[in-house]
Amino acid sequence: MIRDITLGQYYPGGSAVHRLDARTKIIATLLYIIELFVVNNFYGFLIAAAALFAVIAVSKVPLKFIFRGLTAVFLIIAFTFLLNLFMVDGRVLWHWKFLTITYEGLMRAFFMAVRLVLLIIGSSILTLTTKPIELTDGLEKLLKPFSKIGLPSHEIALMMTIALRFIPTLMEETDKIIKAQQARGADFESGNIIQRGKNLIPILVPLFVSSFRIAQDLALAMEARCYRGGSGRTRMNEIHFRRGDAVAAVLMVLFLAGIIASRFI
Amino acid sequence: MPISVKNLRYVYSPGMPDETVAISDVSFDVADGEILGVIGHTGSGKSTLLQHLNGLIKPTSGEIYIDGQCITDGKVKMTDIRRKVGLVFQYPEYQLFEETVRLDVAFGPKNLGMDEEEREKRVRHAVELVGLDYDEIKDMSPFELSGGMKRRVAIAGVIAMDPKILILDEPTAGLDPSAHRDILAMVRRIHDEMGIILIFVSHNMADIASLSDKVIVMNEGNIALSGTPAEVFSQGEKLAEMGLGLPPAKEIADLIKSKAPKFESSALTADETAADIRRYLEENRG
């Protein structure tokens, strides 16, 4: 159950997408997300989806793997769909008591759902094809210019690295604690909301204690290896833009142009 | 309450790129009152196997019978299994969460729906069985206790559920030698007093040899060897291939045998080896 969350997971591979500079991928993903909000009709989504599936095909990440991550956020998508479906005014298609479905509502609901799905798949491609360490390196480099105005770019990147690094550890820890308490007869599946909330205490308290213990060990291990912040720190693997990144940039510009053009169809 | 495991198989995330066979085909039986030792290196499927025994994991295929009742056909109530089969995880002290020792140990019995009076009795008995003074520690926070004491309290939390089968996953991991000895003696005492089936995992071959009636050796999701400790530990080469060793006392006896062909010993524990050496020296004096 808890293992099935693929959000933020890395899928090992050596495809052209994997080899791109992390900075290229971060910027491309950001542009892609912005463009999803620029789109005002289904033609735009068609272009976006075509581009997205082309990238997925090149990356060689199995579709099954990508969609498994989607199931975790299915509820959010369903909720957005329903909200839009019933809340938009317009030509009435169906009416029952206080529930009304309009033509505009139906279109809007589909529009939003498609946008969300494309958004989630698109951003998961970034993490699926980029090692967490590359991702944070790229982010640190991108944020570097802002350190002149006092933004602690190295610290932000380090915090992200640590957070990403410990997601699987904490998941495993949670899984273990849940099982240990289940073995003691704890029941997490029945009762009303308040009862269920209370049932979480036997998981949350040990999880907090573990997190502090892990954090303390990590801090000690970092200090033992003379970590003292970002200033003057060099990297073992410098990241460089390559020819592939130039190709990606050109494709990105074409994509951008296509999306903007789609607004006028 | 005998256990019978038949053709158990378990596959992690089937159909996904990270699909792994944790247990491929495992069958074994445990008779009433037996102590079963389980060995195998990390990732051999030991922990996964143990978690099947109280229904925390559902097998991909195969059956498990406890006291003749099939627990894998989906018809049994989970609380019934958990009442019968107590499972103590590795580093059980990390599962403590209550404000006082008394409340923490009572968590299991409370989940089983025991009444206040029965609960108090069980909790006191369990804490005393693990060798702690109940009146002294019952109102202390479990987080104030020492490492060894925390582990005892956590084990008491499972014993208080009055299981008929007790499973311990590496009960002595990460303890200093004296706490290690104490926990081992405690495990033995719990078994003898409660008259239960005891299953325990350990990387310490000396513990396995001194405690168990029967041993199974897990390797890559299968049972590679099984039998009495003497039978299993007579296969030193096979064990070495799997990255496992022999009890130190057995190693010493084998070493002496290789230098002194007339020395005979089937000893597995330090005391037995010492007795065999003494006898050998007396017989061959002069």
What would a concise description of this structure say?
Chain A has 265 residues and is mainly alpha-helical. Chain A has two domains: 1-130 and 238-265, no CATH class; 153-233, no CATH class. Chain A has eleven helices and two strands, in the order H-H-H-H-H-E-E-H-H-H-H-H-H.
Tell me the strand order in the biggest sheet of chain A: 1-2
Termini distance of chain A?
Answer: 44 Å
Strands of chain A, total number: 2
User: Can you name the CATH architecture of the largest domain in chain B?
Assistant: 3-Layer(aba) Sandwich
Radius of gyration of chain A: 23 Å
Oligomer: heterodimer
Look at the structure and give the mean pLDDT of chain B. Answer: 89
Please tag this protein with its features.
heterodimer; A: 265 residues; mainly alpha; flat; B: 286 residues; alpha/beta; Rossmann fold; 3 domains; six-stranded mixed sheet; four-stranded antiparallel sheet; 12 helices; 10 strands
List the helices and strands and how they pair.
The complex is a heterodimer of chains A (265) and B (286).
Chain A: H1 16-19, H2 22-38, H3 42-59, H4 63-71, H5 74-87, E1 92-96, E2 99-102, H6 103-129, H7 132-143, H8 153-183, H9 193-199, H10 201-224, H11 243-262
Antiparallel strand pairs in A: 1-2
Helix pairs in contact in A: 2-6, 2-11, 3-6, 3-11, 4-6, 5-6, 7-8, 8-10
Chain B: E1 3-12, E2 20-30, E3 35-39, H1 46-53, E4 61-66, E5 69-70, H2 78-84, E6 85-88, H3 101-111, H4 116-129, H5 134-137, H6 147-159, E7 165-169, H7 177-194, E8 197-201, H8 205-211, E9 214-219, E10 222-227, H9 229-233, H10 236-241, H11 248-259, H12 270-283
Give an account of the 3D structure.
The complex is a heterodimer of chains A (265) and B (286). Chain A is mostly helical and 265 residues long. Chain A has 2 domains: 1-130 and 238-265, no CATH class; 153-233, no CATH class. Helix content of chain A is 69%, strand content 3%. Chain A is built from 11 helices and 2 strands; from the N terminus they run αααααββαααααα. Chain A has helices at residues 16-19, 22-38, 42-59, 63-71, 74-87, 103-129, 132-143, 153-183, 193-199, 201-224, 243-262; strands at 92-96, 99-102. In chain A, strands 1-2 form a two-stranded antiparallel sheet. In chain A, β1 and β2 (99-102) form a beta hairpin. In chain A, α2 (22-38) packs parallel to α11 (243-262), α3 (42-59) packs parallel to α6 and α4 crosses α6 (103-129). Chain A starts with 15 loop residues before the first helix and ends with a helix. With 286 residues, chain B is an alpha/beta fold. Chain B has 3 domains: 1-76 and 164-239, P-loop containing nucleotide triphosphate hydrolases (Rossmann fold), CATH 3.40.50.300; 97-160, no CATH class; 247-286, no CATH class. Chain B has 12 helices and 10 strands. In chain B, strands 6-7-8-3-9-10 form a 6-stranded mixed sheet, sandwiched between helices. The longest helix of chain B has 18 residues, at 177-194. Chain B starts with a strand and ends with a helix. At the A-B interface, α4, α8 and α10 of A face α2, β6 and α3 of B.
